[in-house]
Structures are given as C-alpha cells and as structure tokens.
C-alpha cells in the first residue's frame, strides 16, 4: 500500500533531515512511502535538500493549510498523513497504520504521539483520544486532542470533507478533525506513531490567535447549551488527564501548552 506523508515547510532545515530519514525508514515490502514537501519560499535550502533525498517538492503561496490541501490532493497514497519538519515517525509506524486500516476498514486512524523538548528530552506520551469521542465533545474542549502527526486519513474522506478550511490559520487541523468526526468515527490505535519537538516556535504556541479560532470552532460545532458544553469539556479533560499522567505532570512543571494544533511552518 502507498502511504503519503505531507510536510509543509518554511526554512525547516534544522529538523528536516531527521524527519525525512524517519519516513524513508518506513519503506518495506508492504508499505511504499511517498513524502511530499510543500514549501512556502524557504531560503535555507529546504526544498533543494528534500529533493536530493527523494521527496516530491511542491510550492505554495498561502498558509499551512493551503499547503496541506496541495499535498493531499497530489498524494498517490490511499492513506495520507501530516508530518512537520520538526516531527518524525517511530520505526514501524506506517506498518501499524496499514495493519489497522486493513483490519478495521475505517477511513481514518489515530495513534499516540510522544513529545520532546528542544534538546530531544522526553516530556511525555500523549495517548490517542477515546473511541467514544464525538464531534460536539471535541469542539467543546477548546483544543484538539487528536494528534495531527499520528493521524492518517483516507484520501476519499479528505475529498468528501473538501479538505482543510484555509480560513483557519492556526487550527485548521482541529476544525478538520471535528468535521471528520461528524462524518464517521476513527479507528484508535494505542501505539506511538510520531514524535514531536516543542521548541517554542510551534504555531500552536501562539495562544491568543489559536484561542480566537478555537472559540469560532466551538460556536460552529459545540452544543449550544453552555451546561452541555461544559459537561462535555469536563468529561473529556478528566479522561485525558487520567490517561496521560506523565504528560500532565510535565505540562504543569514545564508550562507545556496543549499538545496538538497545527505544526509550525518551520516544521
């Protein structure tokens, strides 16, 4: 099976070699990997390096979600995932994704991720969200607990959903996952699929801009009744905190922001 990885980039050379090598290592007799880099005008050699390592390089004028749309539409893979330059796949990740797809037949699969600080030290595993997650519940949370870099979407589902909404600069993946949940449920796998650096430049670190967009998502998709919205949020937050104790501890100790959200364009 062909699996496509889409990486938006803008001057991402600091982490890009590790990202690309992690995708190349996924190649096997069962998995063919296509890696598409959609560049926004890098001046640090990102597109040239990516091309030299066998990636398909494309270009865009707009933001990160336009880049994702370009990459997804060009993908040859049946399943398509997102990986920033500052993210990498763990060994065997795509084989596990393909195995689950063939077993479950679900059109999107969500795994767990592991977070690293800028020096590569672990700051916690974040588990894939619960199977009982609903679209209104996710919209009520105020941030996306669906790890974007550990999520793979069938290209037909992407087409059905008309791609990422480019009106959202920072939380387009969050809004996309809410709409996907409205359409159908995901298949949950517990294993870690990706590792992600938290280095302070991630787009989801821009709290005020991100918060404004997540409020819009709540208005569009969360329950109208505030009591129901608060109950959904409390239930989901309680589950997330209970099932991710190490992540919760490191979040408190280090002040780590919420774990998902769109990856930085330098990623």
Weakly predicted, low-confidence segments:
262-267
- The overall number of domains is 1
Query: What is the overall number of helices?
Result: 10
SSE run: EHEHEHEEHEEHEHHEHHH
The CATH architecture comes to Alpha-Beta Complex
Task: Describe the main β-sheet briefly.
Answer: 9 strands, mixed
Distance between the termini: 26 Å
CATH superfamily: Spore Coat Polysaccharide Biosynthesis Protein SpsA, Chain A
Q: What share of the residues does DSSP label as strand, in percent?
A: 15-25%
Overall 3D shape: globular
| Class inferred from helices and paired strands | alpha/beta
Average pLDDT rating = 91
Number of strands: 9
CATH topology (fold) name: Spore Coat Polysaccharide Biosynthesis Protein SpsA, Chain A
CATH class: Alpha Beta
Task: Throw out a few tags for this protein.
single chain; alpha/beta; Spore Coat Polysaccharide Biosynthesis Protein SpsA, Chain A; 9-stranded mixed sheet; 40% helix; globular
Q: Short summary of the structure?
A:
With 267 residues, the chain is of the alpha/beta class.
């Amino acid at each position: 099976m062909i699996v496509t990885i889409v990486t938006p980039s803008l001057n991402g050379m600091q982490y890009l070699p590790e990202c690309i090598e992690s995708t190349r290592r996924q190649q096997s007799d069962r998995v063919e990997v296509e890696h598409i880099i959609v560049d926004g005008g890098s001046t640090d050699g990102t597109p040239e390096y990516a091309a030299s390592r066998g990636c398909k390089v494309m270009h865009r004028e707009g933001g990160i979600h336009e880049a994702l749309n370009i990459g997804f539409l060009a993908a040859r893979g049946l399943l398509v995932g997102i990986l920033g330059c500052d993210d990498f796949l763990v060994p065997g990740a795509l084989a596990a994704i393909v195995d689950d797809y063939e077993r479950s037949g679900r059109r999107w699969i969500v795994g767990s991720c592991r977070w690293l600080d800028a020096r590569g030290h672990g700051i916690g595993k974040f588990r894939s969200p619960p199977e009982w997650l609903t679209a209104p519940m996710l919209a009520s949370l105020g941030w996306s607990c669906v790890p974007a870099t550990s999520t793979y979407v069938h290209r037909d589902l992407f087409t059905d959903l008309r791609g990422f909404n480019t009106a959202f600069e920072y939380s387009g993946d969050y809004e996309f996952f809410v709409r996907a949940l409205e359409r159908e449920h995901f298949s949950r796998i517990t294993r870690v699929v990706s590792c992600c650096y938290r280095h302070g430049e991630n787009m989801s670190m821009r709290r005020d801009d991100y918060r404004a967009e997540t409020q819009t998502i709540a208005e569009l998709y969360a329950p109208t009744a505030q009591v129901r919205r608060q109950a959904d949020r409390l239930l989901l937050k309680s589950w997330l905190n209970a099932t991710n104790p190490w992540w919760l501890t490191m979040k408190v100790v280090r002040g780590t922001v919420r774990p998902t959200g769109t990856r930085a364009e330098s990623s």
